[in-house]
Every structure is written in C-alpha cells, then in structure tokens.
Amino acid sequence: TQLLEQSPQFLSIQEGENLTVYCNSSSVFSSLQWYRQEPGEGPVLLVTVVTGGEVKKLKRLTFQFGDARKDSSLHITAAQPGDTGLYLCAGAGLSGNTGKLIFGQGTTLQVKP
Amino acid sequence: DSGVTQTPKHLITATGQRVTLRCSPRSGDLSVYWYQQSLDQGLQFLIQYYNGEERAKGNILERFSAQQFPDLHSELNLSSLELGDSALYFCASSVVGLAADTQYFGPGTRLTVL
Prior knowledge:
The complex is a heterodimer of chains A (113) and B (114).
Chain A: E1 5-7, E2 10-14, E3 19-24, E4 31-37, E5 44-49, E6 55-58, E7 61-65, E8 71-76, E9 85-92, E10 101-103, E11 107-112
Parallel strand pairs in A: 2-11
Antiparallel strand pairs in A: 1-3, 3-8, 4-5, 4-9, 6-7, 7-8, 9-10, 9-11
Chain B: E1 5-7, E2 10-13, E3 19-24, E4 31-38, E5 42-50, E6 53-57, E7 64-68, E8 74-78, E9 87-94, E10 104-105, E11 109-113
Parallel strand pairs in B: 2-11
Antiparallel strand pairs in B: 1-3, 3-8, 4-5, 4-9, 5-6, 7-8, 9-10, 9-11
C-alpha cells in the first residue's frame, strides 16, 4: 500500500494545454515536496509546502497543500515541451523529525510540440 | 549539478556478489540519505545518517548496510545480490537532516545484477 498516492501515473498532452497532478494520503505530513527528475539524473526539488492551505507559484507551476496537510496538487499552465519529465511528490515528517521522505509513484509527463 | 557525487555511475555484477556504492555529500551538509528507485517500487527510502550516526531507517534489507565516515562521505554495501536488487541507487544530502531540510540528490548509481 502506497502511503502517498500520486495520479495520474502517465500524462501525454499537447503544448499549450493545462494539467494537474494530484498527491493524496491518509497521513498528515509536516511538509510536502515536489521534485522533477530527468532520465539518468537525480530528482531536483521544485518546491516545499509546509502550511495547510498554502499555495506557491513557480512561473507556470502552481503548488497547493491541502488544509489538512494530507494532500497536494501541482498545476501546470500552458505546458511546454521543456516540462516533459517525471514529477514526484514526497512527504516528510511521518517518522518524527528526521529527513525521511515518502515518495509517490510519480507522474510521467510528456508534452508534445 | 547538486554538489552530491556518487560513484560508480554504472555497476554490472552477478547474483551472489557484493558491491559498494560511494557518496560524497555537498560541502557543509552533515546528513546523507540512501534511496532505491526501481520500476515497480518507485523511489524508496533506505537509510539516513547524520554526522556519522544512523538517524532513520526504512525498509532496508538485512543484506544491505551503510555507514557514514568521519569525513562525512557514505558507503552503501549490498551483499548476496539478487536479480531484484537491480535498480538506481541515489544518495542525497542535507544540512542537518531534519524534516524541513532540503535534500539534494546525486546523479545515482545504476546497478544491474545478472
């Protein structure tokens, strides 16, 4: 059983379309992080959300943390081919105040020109 | 470039063998983490060290062990290798190893067990 359920697992869209990726859990996290991973490389942190209800924007990317700190979403506006990659959500704080991250299964995004 | 280095980049070995993966954290980071990424399990936390001491443990197999040395580099030892151990192994580092820390990931070691 996945502690963090991420959906959809695969997404193929045309350039210019909008999309949303969801990350859901029955557990409460102290923070939720979103990473992007390119083939052959390690994950790179995009954003960390800490407060319930928090919304953060990074250019065309909007991240939201649920009020109860159990879920999060990533919305991309006007997707571009450069957005193609694997997007991972990760929760922290389930195992006391350690750095242990629980990752979702990931969303593979393909943006076609 | 995250500043975290991992060696080797690729490793091909046979079942039953033992390998050692090495990680050097970013300058100034005291905590290192090891993660395993496979197609069916995704990215799974293995173990965390802070300043040489184990801080958190995930579902790390008994055949696997790790340590962090006084110079803060870390090694992950995998023994009695099985086909299912084939995966990408990532090391990450952070400043103090707490939940609010940002973790920086290395480029990974791709392990293939034949």
